[in-house]
UniProtKB/TrEMBL annotation:
It comes from Jannaschia seohaensis. It holds the Pfam family SoxD. This is Sarcosine oxidase subunit delta. InterPro entries: SoxD (IPR006279), SoxD_sf (IPR038561). GO terms for biological process: tetrahydrofolate metabolic process. One of its GO terms (molecular function) is sarcosine oxidase activity.
Length: 85
């Protein structure tokens, strides 16, 4: 089982985490078209290699940015979204 580093709780089993979103994805304006909203919700880059993603650690309910390699699943680091723990 893989272990991810929560910036608040430290290394934990991957089953405690939930993927939330791609980091840096811009939400469309309030009165956007249905097609733009659907693209925002469902279209992902799915890049091979280095990616930045937003994850949630379910036990502490904190969100953070995880940098990882999508091909090898190796985690390069994780950073709290709300500042230092």
């Amino acid at each position: 089982m893989q272990r991810f580093d929560c910036p608040f709780c430290g290394p934990r089993p991957e089953t405690e985490f939930h993927f939330a979103a791609e980091a840096g994805k811009t939400r469309p304006v309030r009165d956007c078209s249905d097609a733009d909203w659907a693209a925002y919700l469902h279209m992902v880059r799915n890049a091979k290699g280095a990616v930045c993603e937003i994850w949630v650690h379910r036990p502490c309910r904190e969100m953070f940015v995880m940098e990882r390699d999508s091909a090898t699943m190796e985690v390069q680091g994780s950073t709290a979204l709300r500042g230092a723990p």
